[in-house]
Design brief:
Layout (H helix, E strand, L loop, with lengths): L6 H35 L4 E8 L4 E7 L5 H15 L4 E4 L7 H21 L2 H15 L2 E6 L3 E8 L2 E8 H5 L5
Parallel strand pairs: 2-3
Antiparallel strand pairs: 1-2, 4-5, 5-6
Length: 176
């Protein structure tokens, strides 16, 4: 019954089947990516989303409105991302205008206050120190804290700097 089937026909069928399966997987992952991107874009305050995947990681870059609530948006984005890819890194993009250098310098000034508060656990002192340090620069800020992160927004002119600082990362000196 199978005497007439040649090896090359079996190989062609196997390769074709494998190609169809891989194409199906690619279409499915593309659909998942577009679906996640659409869900994130539908969050109020989000302007754009870019998902970058490589072989070992996935990064989700999110642009938000200058007046948006960083903590609220981050937690909403994190909730959506965790439904599909919990290991993905969420990066809120800074708004880099003409005044970005001043905002970045202001962050450099207060980064020690943030690190010190994590080590000492005194967030009231951090708030007071940041207020004093930023009063000299003219940069306005929003500071929020929850059980996992410190959410910092620095605004000046046409620029904004957003930082979500995880407590365990801050303890190691990583304030990104």
């Amino acid at each position: 019954m199978f005497k007439g089937i040649k090896l090359y026909i079996v190989v062609i069928v196997a390769v074709s089947l494998l190609s169809v399966l891989l194409l199906g997987l690619r279409v499915y992952t593309q659909y998942q990516s577009n679906n996640l991107e659409g869900r994130i874009k539908s969050i109020g305050g989000v302007k754009s989303v870019s998902i970058v995947r490589d072989k070992v990681s996935e990064k989700i870059f999110v642009d938000i409105d200058k007046s948006a609530d960083l903590q609220e948006i981050y937690l909403d984005v994190k909730r959506e991302v965790n439904r599909d890819t919990p290991q993905a890194e969420i990066i809120i993009q800074d708004i880099k205008g003409h005044d970005y250098k001043k905002v970045k310098e202001a962050f450099d000034i207060i980064s020690f206050d943030i690190f010190e508060s994590k080590v000492n656990g005194d967030f009231k002192e951090m708030r007071d120190d940041i207020q004093v340090d930023l009063a000299m620069t003219g940069v306005s800020y929003t500071l929020r804290i929850d059980e996992d992160n410190i959410y910092l927004t620095l605004l000046y002119g046409d620029s904004a700097l957003y930082r979500i600082i995880n407590y365990s990362e801050a303890a190691r000196g990583n304030l990104r």
